[in-house]
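Record 1 of the preview.
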Amino acid sequence: MLRKSHLVAVSCVIAVLLVAQATAQTSGLQPGGKLIELDEDNWHRMLEGEWMIEFFAPWCPACKNLAPTWERFARVAKDVQVQVAKIDVTTSPSLSGRFFVTALPTIYHVKNGDFRQYRGARDGDALMYFVKKQQWQSIEPLSAWKKPDTIHMSVLSYFFKLSHTLKHTQKLFKDFNGRLQEEYGLPTWGSYALFAVATIFVGAAMGLLLVCLVDFVYPPKKTQRQSFSESQEHLADGVEDLATEEIEDDVEAVENEDEQRESDEEEEEQEEDDEDEEEEDEEDSEEQAGDVPTQEKDAESEPDKEQKPVPKQAGDAAPEKSEKTEQVRKRKPRKGD
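->
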């Protein structure tokens, strides 16, 4: 019976320890309940109350030197109602981007959502004096556009997380590349070619998905929906219309040239007719001037013959004029040529 009672007691103690450990892990506390570990899931806890937060990395020498001091500070800070926590930037890269951490270790004091960066000494007494005497009041808090709980800093945190994911992907790629070379004997260029083809296909699939998504969100109008055959028909009609317009333009140009040529020929013929008429008028005037003295002499000697030469001259001038008009008519067939 005594042995059984001892076994029951030991089992109860073990059960209590397991429950306490599970409770500490779920609440973010280390065994002992002194130092709180925050990550990307529970970092919002620091927005309520007063906190001292350390950003560290396991590979950082300065962080390793500060670790014992930070643990002692966490044990004594409970007397002034200050919670002490630490954040591993290697496992929570988005928080390093959200707080814009550029050096390690980085310490922040948080009081009811106001963030101040601690830049003092890193020993236990200086840290305790800082929170006990409320020296953080002399430090200007972060401006609104730098506060970690804003939207733009949240976007920046996603970029930091994406960078960490890409680094992890690169490591996986190297491991997979080494496995292909060792187990399947694939050369280096072959593995790179395989990944290049996979990248092209993934990009094409994502582009197709994006196009389908855009068409679904912004569907085109019915008037814009045309099949390939309809578009080809419209294109052929447009080409035919363009060719017809060009032919009509050429015909109009030829007609205009013919009209211009005809008008030029008519002007030339008119000028020639005018010149012939002027020559005929000059010849008539010269003949009339030469016949006047002879008519006077004949009038003195023979009055009966005064009117006879005149019809003869008129008869002579008429044939000459008809001959010239016939020459002009013979020239007009040039227009048809």
